[in-house]
Amino acid sequence: MPVLYALSGTIFNVFTVLLGGTLGNLAGHRLPARVQTTIFDGLGLLTLLVGVQMALHTRYVLILLGAILLGGLIGEAARLEQNIERFGNWLQDRFAGQDGRFSEAFVASSLLFCVGPLTITGSIENGLTSNYRILALKALLDLFSSFAFGASLGWGVLASTLTILVFQGGLALGAGLFAGILDRGTVTELTAAGGLLIVGIGIRLLNLRRIPVGNFLPALAVAPALLELYRAVAPLVRPLLP
């Protein structure tokens, strides 16, 4: 299958984020400060809601807890938050001048656009069949989200297209491999872990607490690994239980 067909949904998604983010930035500067604050608070509340909805899909709370704790420890040891901010600041200096919220916009929008069942199942379907219907739906949703992020956080939202290209594009191009690994249960737990990270983004957007969300990114890999460990161990332990 030609690479362009496998990436058709991802390319369309990148286009909608660029369009929405650009329009949001152009409109945001023309809005009064109180209106910008209202949009920003509304975005924070909506981000919290989306994150909670995703996190509640978990079937194994202890796996989710373990993924967040272990992922956080791994991320802290690797100083992921600092490295992500350093990368965001480099992009800011190179492309965005004095936009002080560039890094925050980059991290927040990357997480929101790249974590969730639509991203995973849509990318795999696009890669296997060239059908991009799921990613087209996601792209239209991201169009409105990127407008809100652009209006409230600035040009950093456009940098999230790099994350979309790498993550969604990687899933699509490796669809044959991932299709056998990412079953429904795995996608559910990965989505739940991503939902908790999005809750952290919402808390940051509302200025309640600056949670270093970047340090918890390894949880997205730890959650599926813990689920596979549970699946392997559970049949051995179950006969020993009373």
How is this structure best described in words?
This protein has 12 helices and no strands. The protein is mostly helical and 242 residues long. It has one domain (3-231). The mean pLDDT is 85.
What overall geometry do the principal axes of the alpha carbons give? globular
Total number of beta strands? 0
- Span of the ends, CA to CA: 53 Å
The number of helical segments is: 12
Rg estimate, integer Å: 18 Å
Largest sheet: none
Order of helices and strands: HHHHHHHHHHHH
Whole-number mean pLDDT: 85
Overall SS class: mainly alpha
Low-confidence parts lasting 5 or more residues at pLDDT below 50? none
**Total number of domains:** 1
What proportion of the residues form beta strands (DSSP E)?
under 5%
- State the share of residues found in helices, binned by percent: over 70%
Give a brief description.
By secondary structure, this protein is mainly alpha-helical. It contains twelve helices and no strands.
Key traits:
242 residues; mainly alpha
